[in-house]
Amino acid sequence: MMQGSGLLIALVLGISVLGLAFAGYLARWVMGKSTGSEKMRAISDAIKEGAEAFLRRQNRTILMLAVLVAAILFVGYGFVRSHRPFDPVGSSMQLATWITLSFVLGALCSVFAGYVGMWVSIRSNIRTATAALTSLNDALRIALRGGAVSGLLVVAMSLLGVAGLFGLVSAVGGVEETKIPLLIVGYGFGASFVALFAQLGGGIYTKAADVGADLVGKVEAGIPEDDPRNPAVIADLVGDNVGDCAGRGADLFESTAAENIGAMILAGSLALAADKASMGFSMGIVGVMMFPLVARAFGIIASIVGIMWVHMDKEEKMDPMQALNRGYYVTAILAMAAFGGATRWLLYTEKAPDAWWHYFICGILGVLTSVAFVYITQYYTEYKFRPVQSIAEASKTGPATNIIAGIGVGFECVWMPALTMSAALLGSYYVGMAAFPAGSNINGGLFGTAVATMGMLATAAYILAMDTFGPITDNAGGIVEMSEQPEEIRKKTDRLDAVGNTTKALTKGYAIGSAGLAAFLLFQAYMDEVGQYAGKPLMTVNLANPVVFVGGLLGAALVFLFSAMAIRAVGSAAQAIIAEVRRQYAKLPRVNDMIQFPKDFKPDYGACVDIVTKSALRKMVAPGILVVATPIAVGLIFKYAFASEADPLIAAESVAGFLMVATIVGILTALFLNNGGGAWDNAKKYIEMGAHGGKYLTDKDGNKVKNPTHGAAVVGDTVGDPFKDTAGPSLHVLIKLLSTITLVLAPLFI
């Protein structure tokens, strides 16, 4: 069986290396394109310097915190917790070494994946802008392939880390193979830990700069977006990269890493149960455990084909979104075909010959769930549909009614995704249950939900490429605007930017959908792990028990407190930016309340970049530490306060209650924040395209004046900014970070 294990690990590692090599090829292809005029390069260099300086300082802070957590893990497992008979290894020191090593590797890989993805994106923006001068098709391909470097790198690095650690432990650890995932759960925790700070820091940076640039530039000064006379514009463009590229890259990296390990834990339990019932799988226990990694590896190949498939028609009349959708459908079809092959190969058992196709159906349910999330997000965030149009309509009577309408849309948008997730979980659970004969005593349902999550994440590399496409095209539009290119060139980049805004909204929908399914999978993995360490199963979480109920209540409260801290951080940083921009505009003359800029006006971009960098780094630490510390405190305090011989697992059960309720509340709150913020943003864009009078009106004397309807929509958009780009995406990470922390620390609560 070890030979089969070696073959599967080699296959996964080989495809991961192929993914990294192809990412390198795409990076070279993008870097070979023209960088345009000197003026364009000067703007691009300013964005590059700001983004790299911020990320260097942020990563230094994150790694210092990670070293502290690694030391606590090592001391906690090596010296504080005593060895137990059900532990996967023979001594406390071995357990401490493997868990700490996997945590450090997960953190380092997450930092590396986020940094390299952003490094390429801040060099793709100017090449996209230059290509747009001659060809929209070339600009589209450069932006997508620049984004694909990040997408492929994230998924391949995640696979490489998990498969490499699995191979290392099985080669030198002498550990039973079903126990190996319990030793490498630290990899998912390390990735989640970095992702939370990357998403928080990047989100605070990008939205503080955006709010400051919009409120003073658009509302007070009456100048367009990305206007070079706005002192906050470079900070805003830097923010797109550190928030959307590095932050989301780290987010999806930890999603795939944690989900892989959680699925392997459940796969090991299923394979053991099948073996005991004399219904073993064709490739043995290891074959089932390696299934999540093999299926994900095939997804990399499908994503590569999909990325290379994207192009426009010769006349360039096609909607760029159509070209991206075509690539997505190619990726999804190929990924599902490969998924079917992997289920037949690794999940086939002679005693239950229908089991494999039941799990294939679970995977298809996962893909259909991701497609449903995309369409639901489109409905609530695109200006073609009722929700966004209702917010634009409400803007006619001022900012207050705009905000009331936006909050209404945010609350409404929760029910459809909740219904979709419920259908996916129940459908995959009962299809998985039906995989084995009724009298076999094998519960295949939980693994069915894990397979649905794998199906949803099968196209993760392509989805992340589409996500990173957004900030690249946004930056390209900014470079075109700031270098004062002709109007028809700006129209080309506007077409790409509009598509980029849609892809960013869609990938947020995808991220929260996958977070919801992955969180359920990781919750089940936690229950399974507690059972393995305790030597008896933890079958139920009894919320009627007051200790468990209080654990759940604290989980719900954490979500709200964390969201408040993230939104407040954006607000205070934005106030500093607004004060700085107003200071630079204070002495300029005004006509009809619109600033008249002298031709020699040169804004100080550096002052805004410096303010927002310091603020984001300072404000990201407290909410991050809160999230890491709370579940640990709940588990340890409840253990020493309430655990007894009659109920030794009460602390582990209360942490399960904490995790369960925090996950449910976190998913619903993230949906409210993401879709509400996206709807406010597109209501503003809908008005800017000419609805309800557009950005400017003409008074009775023929003078151009600001449209108060547009001003109200900009206020709503700035309220939604920290919702959709700071608190919302950070909650995706929080949900999975809580799961990975509890997976790593479960033995301490028993």
Q: Which structural class do you get from the secondary structure elements?
A: mainly alpha
Shape: globular
Strand content: under 5%
Number of contiguous helices: 21
How many strands, which pairing sense, and closed or not: the largest β-sheet?
A: 2 strands, antiparallel
Tell me the strand order in the biggest sheet: 1-2
Task: Please characterize this protein's 3D structure.
The chain is an all-alpha fold. It has 21 helices and 4 strands. The strands form 2 sheets. A two-stranded antiparallel sheet has the order 1-2. The protein has a two-stranded antiparallel sheet with strand order 3-4. Helix 6 runs antiparallel to helix 7. The two termini are 33 Å apart. The mean pLDDT is 89.
Helix and strand layout, with pairings?
Elements: H1 2-31, H2 38-80, H3 92-132, H4 136-172, H5 180-183, H6 185-220, H7 233-276, H8 284-309, H9 320-346, H10 355-381, H11 386-394, H12 399-412, H13 415-433, H14 445-456, H15 460-482, H16 487-534, H17 546-585, E1 590-591, E2 594-595, H18 605-619, H19 621-642, H20 650-688, E3 696-698, E4 704-706, H21 708-745
Antiparallel strand pairs: 1-2, 3-4
Helix pairs in contact: 1-4, 1-8, 2-3, 2-6, 2-7, 3-4, 3-6, 3-7, 3-15, 4-7, 4-8, 4-15, 6-7, 6-17, 6-18, 6-19, 6-21, 7-8, 7-14, 7-15, 7-16, 7-18, 7-21, 8-9, 8-15, 9-10, 10-13, 10-14, 10-16, 11-12, 11-20, 12-20, 12-21, 13-14, 14-16, 15-16, 16-20, 16-21, 17-18, 17-19, ...
